[in-house]
């Protein structure tokens, strides 16, 4: 990891910069695949499954028989773990239900909101280097709570045409309507446009590689909503001299193993901790099956020595990390200073893995600095707020003249007239 000591404010922009990739050719490839899926539907999807996932599929849908087989293949211990995680995720998201109230803004003018679920949502679950069955829970559970009528899930199959059984078990537990064996750009296109097999959805959720992310952004321009723009996963750890270097190193590596384009940053006030953490990173890295991936990610990563924890918080707010781990003695005080972050983990025992799996919070979070403007996935992500208003004759009297004046000033005479005819009607 690159070490930066006491950086000047002018250096911060370089410190918080993410790895950049030339996506010009990638975007052209994605656009071509999307156009083909839109035009040829299932035939195109099956062709790309053969080309990219190396599997010749007769049917894109996961059958009831395959779901039952998956149930038998998942161990009782793993199923119980999935059920525990689902229970906690359900509790946390159920508590986010919108509670509307009517507001009388003027005598006779009553306004309110109603939260209405998105009818059809699509979930993308990666299945490449890591089959993310935990993400099924994170995406499908709030969709079910919100009341989405159709929850469609796409995930890539293996070369035998099978979907990871834990993904299927999680899908059943969380209430997914339909599961399809489709990966990559073709999955995004199938959900965005609809095919003979896959229903068109109104909003697409879920992580993926650069191609999936580019596909989501392209279809969001015209055809369907998406959860958020996203890039490679990342973590920032803030630690003082009281932090446990074993814990800090473990948190950095748990993020680094996501992918070669992931990024981790340690911000600390302690010289000694830097040395201790580096030794622990080396030791723990040597034991990881995915050490080559993690090692590559560490090349994009930094350790930053700062003067005090106030400077540490200013720097992390400038970075706006997807995950923020605060392992300091005064973590509660620093928590109040968080402005930009996707999800925050407080104290020595709140590892990022807890939120990734089973604490109950959602792990689908804004990356690449988007935490400055975006929230992670939550119950509201699956809902729309529809506004209502009701005016009585008294309400027309209360605001009618103001409406007329404002419409006239904007030179929208028909708008003015719509209120004028009502004012005249109640005066008669």
End-to-end Cα distance, whole Å, is 80 Å
| Morphology call | globular
**What proportion of the residues form beta strands (DSSP E)?**
15-25%
Rg: 25 Å
Biggest sheet record: 6 strands, parallel
Q: Note the total helix count.
A: 17
Q: Total strand count, please?
A: 14
Side by side, the strands of the main sheet go 1-11-10-9-12-13
What structural class should be given to the helix and strand makeup?
Answer: alpha/beta
User: Oligomeric state of the chains?
Assistant: single chain
Percent range for helical residues?
Answer: 40-55%
Whole-number average pLDDT?
96
Runs in which pLDDT lies below 50 for 5 or more consecutive residues are none
